[in-house]
Each structure stands twice: as C-alpha cells, then as structure tokens.
C-alpha cells in the first residue's frame, strides 16, 4: 500500500490529483491550510478511510512539512500561490513558492528517507521568456527556461513576479537535487493556463485565477472578447493525470514535462460557448478579440511519449467547465 503526501490538497489542480490517487488505491495524507478545507474534502470522500489530513497554515514557515512527510512513500507538491494580487512581491509570491518547495524537499530528506519520488507542480511561467513577446519563430519545450532576474521579480509587475516565483521555485528544486543528492528523484509538471471542471470548494467569488477568465465570458462581465494574453492551455484532468503518472513511470524520474494541449484564442472560446450554450446569448461577447496571430508554437511530444497523455480538446474542456458555471448564471 503506497502512501502519498499531497500538499495544497484544496487547490484546483490538487483536487483532481486527490481524486485520481484515491481511485488508484493510494493512501493519501493531504495538507491543507485549515480544518474547514479538510472538512470539505472529507465530505467528497466520506467513506474513504485512506484519506487523512495535516494542517499546514503557512508553507513558507521553516520546517512547515517536517511532520507531514513522515511515513509517506511518495510526494506530490502542488502547494504554491497563483494570483496577481501582490502588495509585497517577496512575502506574497516569492517566499511561499520558493520556501514551500525547499521546505518539503528538506523535510523529505531529513525525516522520510523512504521517499523515492517527488512530483512538483511548476508552470509554463518557468519556461516562457516574457521579453520575447509573441516570438513566432520559436517552439517552447521543456528545454526552455524563463530568464527572469531577481531584480525584475521584485519590481512592480505582478505577472513578472508570479512567473519569477515559479521559475525560482523550480530551479531551487533542481539545485537541491544536485547539491543534496537525496534518496528521491524529482519530476516537475509545467502547465500553461489550466481550465476544466472544478472539484475544490469554490463560489462565483472565489473561482481560481485561470477558470475566472472563462467565468468572465459566461457571466456577462466582459463587453468585448479580450485579446488573448497567454495563448496556450491544458485541461486540469490532464495535468492531474500527469502528476500521478510521474509517480509511477520510471522514465519520468528527474524530468520536467511541459504539459500543454495547444494554443487558443478567446474568440474561439466564445464561439464554443455560444455553440454549446445558446442560453448564454447576450452574455457571451461577440465583438473584439483575435482569432489567430503569429505567435510561438508549443511542443508536447515529450509528455505524450513518456507519460502517454491523450490531451482533452478545447471544446470538451470549456463545455465541462461551463456546465458548472451555468447554475451560477440562472
């Protein structure tokens, strides 16, 4: 019986990771920030005796995961902030991402010598080179790294700070592996914008950052189709699947995976919404935006080859998510 530690279990991606782990028969020790979050997740699996919880209020605190790592066999570390509400770049984004990652690796080495695999949620933010803009001649893959500097990270651009937090956190993980030589291997999962159905506790006011982009198209708050700012996406179920497969497939040891379905435009998404949900006519914007543009390409061949992922289509992802939103706009 394999015992998995899942950090940040109340999050969007982690909710799906938890579901897959339990379905596959793992015993799961989940970290959450409060008892109320534990209670909600337990309510989803009331009869599952293989699920327990550890409260970790602040992942940036020294020794935050020392107790949580004990007695586990593998670790999936998803806990990291994803938002752009930045007052203090270091306190709000950089410290939680970087220290949260190094804290769990240090704890695993010190208190859990039996751990052999650690899978970490990173991001396309750690791959993309923001200074290159659209970069139409380039194809992004796992070989790319965001060249952001610390000076840029602590500046006034929240998007740059967020991207830096993911970049420095992932680099800290690989540096730890090289310098500390622990018993475990590391795999990082690097998704771009993540959409799809939500399992975690959520309300119209607390929709996670990526899905909030679609929610704004459904609820009538967008007068025009937004210009597409990110241009690559993936369904949350594929991201969660990648995390669990990375625990199980030997080829995934000490690898990073750019888990990406394809590129997109919000004009395409609005078309999908109106085709599948005609009752949203008048709410979904029909003017503005772009349909195509000359931008970078994305390469997901490594995740397909090593992990065997079959990517969910944009239409299926948006439809499955919007089915949840429809109840909120009635």
UniProtKB/TrEMBL annotation:
InterPro entries: Epimerase_deHydtase (IPR001509), NAD(P)-bd_dom_sf (IPR036291), NAD(P)_dehydrat-like (IPR050425)
Domain of life from the UniProt record: Eukaryota
Keyword list, A-Z: Oxidoreductase
Keyword Ion transport assigned: no
Gene Ontology molecular functions: oxidoreductase activity, acting on the CH-OH group of donors, NAD or NADP as acceptor
Residues annotated as domain NAD-dependent epimerase/dehydratase: 4-259
Keyword S-adenosyl-L-methionine applies: no
Family recorded in the similarity comment: Belongs to the NAD(P)-dependent epimerase/dehydratase family. Dihydroflavonol-4-reductase subfamily.
Name of this chain's protein: NAD-dependent epimerase/dehydratase domain-containing protein
Organism whose genome encodes this protein: Lipomyces starkeyi NRRL Y-11557
